[in-house]
Specification:
Layout: H1 2-28, E1 34-35, E2 40-42, E3 47-57, E4 60-67, E5 86-93, E6 96-106, E7 113-121, E8 127-134, E9 141-148, E10 156-163, E11 175-182, E12 188-194, E13 205-211, E14 222-225, E15 233-241, E16 247-254, E17 260-266, E18 278-284, E19 287-291, E20 297-301, E21 308-310, E22 318-319, E23 339-342, E24 348-352, E25 359-365
Antiparallel strand pairs: 1-25, 2-25, 3-4, 4-5, 5-6, 7-8, 8-9, 9-10, 11-12, 12-13, 13-14, 15-16, 16-17, 17-18, 19-20, 20-21, 21-22, 23-24, 24-25
Length: 366
């Protein structure tokens, strides 16, 4: 009868819609990443804050990390006089992450606490490294920029990406977590967490400065992610270029959002919408973003180590079937300071710190 025909037609329409929706989801989602079972230990001792610079020359890559020979002061300590940690650089051949050798280092000045380094290759072939540095009494914070013209063996100081201008003696008025990004025009964008505006209601911001003279000077600070509410603490930035040319910025938002990971997208890499962007589910603390040669966006973070994937330039996200390292802060695991890299053999690699005394890497295929 007419009623049953209508019910059947409606059911058919519903099923057809569901099938189409499932097909769309399948089209948007790419192949999962399948991780190798073996973990590679990169030669390093008492190491933290590891960052790789893959294939900067031929089939070579660099690893920079901080080596700790002495215990650090807990907060601000004017009486601390031990030698500070050393930023080191290893050279690795190809995908054999375990065969690296120490080629260079940057000592901490006096008893300064200098750590958390990263390296990028400049358009002129030189290498640029940023790191964070502070006096143990917290009366000065800086973000030193050093450059190497010989492939990472020797490093020369060039400038400060930013530095505090007045002594405060406060641990929560510092500069932290620098991230360098080479822009299309050859200029370098330096991102970092900045607490120096806290007295004006910006508890912490993601600041950005741009250098177009290979780090000799830096432009005015850009508030890339900020909320003037006295509480929000966007920080630990990471940046990558999308397949459509846009720039994605990822960062944690502590204070007001439990250190969950947010992101923003900019057309030019220097103009950012106000506020704190959009949250990426299942990611918290210390994010890293990478874009594969196929255009897939990968995001991971220090307290979940899950891999979030977007196959549509950041419009939608989903979790990979498994993380490279199945460790989470919520279950008592360590915070890992992870990072993701494209390898020369068409795979991806994830590096972590904090699970042992060395930097560890695991590769995957997709």
């Amino acid at each position: 009868n007419k009623e049953s025909m209508m019910v059947n037609n409606n059911m058919f329409s519903f099923i057809s819609i569901m099938v189409v929706m499932m097909m769309v989801v399948m089209m948007v989602r790419g192949q999962p990443i399948y991780w190798d079972s073996n973990t590679i230990t990169v030669p390093s001792t008492n190491a933290g804050w590891g960052r790789l610079t893959p294939y900067f020359s031929g089939n070579l890559s660099l690893l920079t990390y901080t080596e700790y020979d002495n215990a650090l002061p807990n907060g601000c300590d004017a009486g601390y006089s031990l030698p500070g940690p050393t930023v080191k650089v290893n050279l690795n051949d190809g995908d054999d992450w375990g065969n690296g050798k120490l080629i260079g280092w940057v000592d901490s000045p006096a008893s300064h606490i200098q750590e958390q380094s990263m390296i990028i290759a400049l358009s002129n072939g030189n290498l640029m490294m940023a790191m964070r540095n502070r006096q143990p009494d917290c009366n000065w914070f800086g973000l030193p920029i050093v450059v190497s013209s010989d492939g990472g063996y020797q490093w020369n100081f060039v400038s400060q990406l930013d530095q505090t201008t007045k002594p405060t003696g406060l641990f929560n008025r510092g500069l932290w977590e620098p991230f360098l990004f080479l822009m299309d025009n050859g200029c370098v964008a330096g991102f970092y967490a900045d607490e120096t505006h806290a007295d004006q209601g910006w508890n912490q911001i993601v600041g950005q400065r741009v250098s177009c003279d290979d780090g000799a000077s830096w432009g005015s600070e850009i508030y890339a992610a900020a909320q003037q509410d006295g509480v929000s603490r966007p920080g630990m930035p990471g940046v990558a270029r999308l397949s459509n040319g846009n720039i994605i910025l990822v960062f944690e938002v502590c204070g007001s959002d439990n250190c969950n990971i947010h992101y923003k997208i900019s057309e030019d890499g220097v103009t950012w919408q106000q506020g704190l962007g959009t949250q990426i589910a299942s990611q918290a603390n210390g994010p890293y973003v990478q874009v594969t040669p196929t255009g897939r966006i990968l995001v991971t973070s220090a307290c979940t180590n899950q891999i979030s994937i977007s196959d549509d330039n950041g419009q939608t996200w989903y979790l990979n079937e498994s993380p490279a390292f199945n460790v989470a802060c919520s279950s008592g695991g360590a915070s890992t300071w992870p990072a993701i890299y494209n390898t020369a053999n068409g795979r991806v690699a994830v590096s972590v710190s904090g699970l042992s005394s060395s930097i560890e890497v695991r590769e995957g295929a997709y």
